[in-house]
Amino acid sequence: MQRLLYPLAVSVLAVAVQAQDTPEKLAADAGCGACHHAEEPRMGPSWQAIAERYKDQEGAAAELQEKMRTVSKGAWGEAPMPPVTPDQLTDDQLSSVIDWILNR
């Protein structure tokens, strides 16, 4: 019986850990929410506005990744967006956040 419960417990734990790393949580943990909101503009555009601007644009994910990794200024006004460093979000995590934004 114990042999059956151990794999089940590991599977439940793995699902719980994955659920904690949703793109929304990753963005929040990286501090993106200080300037961005789901639907309301703040210092930066809303996630919805970003999705609408880049909707169906070829290469949008790569363009956003480049903008997010470097200091971005002028795309949404004069306030610069500081870079999102690999310490804040790995490349895979950043890709996940960008996909989440673009698929709103």
TrEMBL record:
Post-translational modification: Binds 1 heme c group covalently per subunit.
Alphabetical keyword list: Electron transport, Heme, Iron, Metal-binding, Signal, Transport
Keyword Transport: yes
Lineage: Bacteria, Pseudomonadati, Pseudomonadota, Gammaproteobacteria, Cellvibrionales
Top-level taxon of the source organism: Bacteria
Annotated ranges, domain Cytochrome c: 18-104
Chain residues that bind heme c: 32, 36, 81
Organism: Chromatocurvus halotolerans
Gene Ontology molecular function: electron transfer activity; heme binding; iron ion binding
Pfam family name, one: Cytochrom_C
Endpoints of the signal sequence: 1-19
Protein name: Cytochrome c-551
InterPro entries per record: Cyt_c-like_dom, Cyt_c-like_dom_sf, Cyt_c_ID
